[in-house]
Amino acid sequence: MFITLEGPDGGGKSSQIGPLVEFLTRAGYRVLATREPGGTPIGDRVRQVLMDLGSAEMHPRTEILLFQSSRAQLVEQVIRPYLAAGGVVVCDRYADSTLAYQGYGQGESLATLRSLLDFATGGLKPDLTFLLDLDPEVGIARRKAGGGEWNRLDANTLAYHRRVRAGYQELARLEPARWVLVDASQPPDAVQSQLRRIALDRMRAQEPSRQA
Ligand code: TYD
User: Fold this and answer.
1) CA-CA distances (angstroms) from residue 15 to 7, 101, 190?
2) pTM
3) What is the phi/psi pair of residue 155, to 5°?
4) pLDDT tens by residue, 188-199
5) Can you give the pLDDT at residue 131?
6) Which residue minimizes the CA distance to atom 12 of ligand 1?
7) Which of 41, 42, 104, 207 has the most CB atoms lying inside 10 A of its own CB?
8) Average of per-residue pLDDT across 57-61
9) CB distance 179 to ligand 1 below 6 Å
């Protein structure tokens, strides 16, 4: 089972993932948490280039390809082997981030991006994707208040973050069997219980077919 967490910045994905993984591990599954961009030594170096406030001259196409190079490495070095060994992978952002940010946010052709994504991932798609949906104004305020790292990609306009959110909502509408929309303005505990319940239900539902 391959689970991804998606959503606008400040939706709390990164703080939800640890407790979710702990819960699923206690429930008896072998679970690995990872994140994008990064998640491998090569990917972490690519992440540094992407996030660096000094990379202001980076061309949008360069940025898109760097995200894909980090992703290709993560898929082949970490995700596929772990899934093949019967484990569960929970990833903080994946291919849908490229569609939401570079596609809906920056206006790059979705068809072009989809073919790049297919190449980068070798066609690997998540089984379940949570959209931690949040008003971008709230998300940005949260990130600033939290004093977390403030990077080059955060420094975009509010209008851009609104397009990203709307893009995510459309992606979820297009593939309702994979996506689950979670209201990330709820208290973190409420978000966490929803993630746990849905993930567990989906995993249990998959088990009989696996054994068959
Ligand atoms: P990160 O610090 O991981 O943010 P978050 O905690 O919100 O996940 O930074 C990742 C940033 O990169 C985030 O603004 C989303 C952006 N991003 C893209 O634009 N395209 C992508 O394909 C990915 C994976 C991330």
Assistant:
1) 13, 21, 13
2) 0.93
3) -80, 35
4) 999 999 999 999
5) 98
6) 153
7) 104
8) 94
9) no
